What does this fold into?
Amino acid sequence: MINVCVIGELKKMLTGPTGLHHQDQKIFYKNKERDSKAFLDIVGVKDKSKLVVMEDPISQEKRYLEMRKNIKMERAAKSISEISLEVDRLAGQVIFFYDMVGDCI
It folds into this structure.
């Protein structure tokens, strides 16, 4: 009996045994690629049906590029945060010196 109802869930279950991220998989049934949102029973998959899992290098590359983009964004956000903290620290010093000069005048 089939315990999953959607191709996408099946892909997630196959991540461990195949070593492929679920977004990097293509599932074929009756020589047609099946969409991750398709229901297994609607496309005709039954117990003992033969499914073919293939690696999708284009999805893998897109995911890799997205990961690199996210890393760059995180680094930029960290730099902005560090600069903001430094500006706040310097603003405190400016206020301190301004108060000191104001007391002398």
Notes: Residues 56-105 form one domain.
